[in-house]
């Protein structure tokens, strides 16, 4: 049998490589991205002095209330994330740690990612306009929609853009605002035929929404559980799968009728 002193030395020798690895990990960049709640923007309002939504070729309503698209901010693909950043984020509800490759395409520079995000935003805006005009049976050859939102990329504002167009042209369909005067936030991609898609980061987006005064959050139905994970007090979730269903839910909310919930 090993003596007590020998056992202690053996434990110490075995522990040294582990300590060395932990020390190295503390100073070596890790393949993660750290995200946090980002900005929100009211698509019914203005951004940098310009209306977010401009419509010509059809009468436009004066709206009240807000429709806020939401964002997250993540460390860039070339940013160094260390063990301390990861550990700190694990203990915070306003931070999320994600594998970098799940946030950014592998091998892409910051500039390439930014360019791709801006391209996705343009594609999303086109789909959002088409979905809204099709829903309202408006002729896209006669009604022109221009969407402008500076410094924000990606496709996740699609649903909110479509809702903004619907509110400006038709409101709730009965003379009132689609928002009912509320501050409504949300997220979700949209296809030209009005289908809502998942986006990711919803638990952070709900925090951004509540921070900026929203009381209702529209979330892609498949991401309900993620949205509920860190749901801020005072924020009501409404799951959505299509533009038509979202409009119907908001109309029901305005009437005090039954509204889908997560």
UniProtKB/TrEMBL annotation:
Top enzyme class: hydrolase
Entry EC no(s): 3.4.21.-
Keywords: Hydrolase, Protease
Domain of life, source organism: Bacteria
Keyword Hydrolase: yes
Protein's name in the database: S16 family serine protease
Organism (species): Streptomyces achmelvichensis
